[in-house]
Amino acid sequence: MYAVIESGGKQYRVEEGATLKVEALPAKAGDSLTLDRVLLVSDGAQVTVGAPHVAGASVRATVLGHGRARKVIVFKYKPKAHYRRKQGHRQGFTQLHIDKISVT
Hints:
Layout: E1 2-7, E2 10-15, E3 19-23, E4 32-35, E5 38-42, E6 47-49, E7 57-68, E8 72-78, E9 83-89, E10 92-103
Antiparallel strand pairs: 1-2, 1-5, 3-10, 4-7, 5-6, 7-10, 8-9
């Protein structure tokens, strides 16, 4: 069984027992979350697609921890104008463990 969820403006395909990194969520490590923005649920034989969300579907997840991704360098440059700007960015993330996908 798998589902497609929406979190932080992005879509993720999740299965029970999987671990994934999503945009930073305001939760502490060890907390349990319910993600109810489920776009699609498949049990192998039947696929349920929401419009835009599947009614009664939810995904239970446990927060494993928080972190920051690798640094991305943003470099702006204009030739012959002595214009150079260098900036780094590290995006925060929350690591989740998917416990259960349920549809009522």
